[in-house]
């Protein structure tokens, strides 16, 4: 039995309230699901929360699944949407706290141990790349995260986002050009500082 038929049987089992079918569906989808969520929210604990919420949404709404795409594509679309919903809520709450108080009342700031860093230049480039990815348009950011950080094919990304593969390719092309320009401009700025 191929994967598509197996997934269809599992969906049918979930519709018939078979817990084992849902558990198996979770096992099949969780690894890629966590990569998708992590690629968007950027924090493992938050990604786990998003993934759990996505599985709940899938379970509650599985009766609305209409098999035009595979269950995995439908689920990963739920994960993408849940991830962006999470980020919107997080932004609204402004939960970022770079400085905290210790029990003694002293201020504390978490600073990475520089001796554990690999190549400083590579680390800086990766950090800048993440910053520049965040500055891309929403569509460009989505396709970059799904294609390169989560490892989905262009066709899978197209199905998840509900558009044509050619549209995904255009967004990827534009995103890569924008990232290349931003990194080159940053490299030029870094070169000026070194002189």
Describe this structure in words.
The chain is mainly alpha-helical and 195 residues long. It has two domains: 3-93, Rna Polymerase Sigma Factor, Chain: A; 114-194, Winged helix-like DNA-binding domain superfamily/Winged helix DNA-binding domain (Arc Repressor Mutant, subunit A). The chain is built from eight helices and two strands. It has a two-stranded antiparallel sheet. Strand 1 and strand 2 form a beta hairpin. Helix 1 crosses helix 2, helix 2 (19-41) crosses helix 3 (44-61) and helix 2 (19-41) crosses helix 4. The longest helix has 30 residues, at 165-194. The chain is elongated, with a radius of gyration of 20 Å.
Write the layout of secondary structure elements.
Elements: H1 3-15, H2 19-41, H3 44-61, H4 71-93, E1 99-101, E2 107-109, H5 120-134, H6 138-149, H7 154-161, H8 165-194
Query: Number of helical runs?
Result: 8
Number of strands: 2
Terminus-to-terminus distance: 64 Å
Strand order of the largest sheet: 1-2
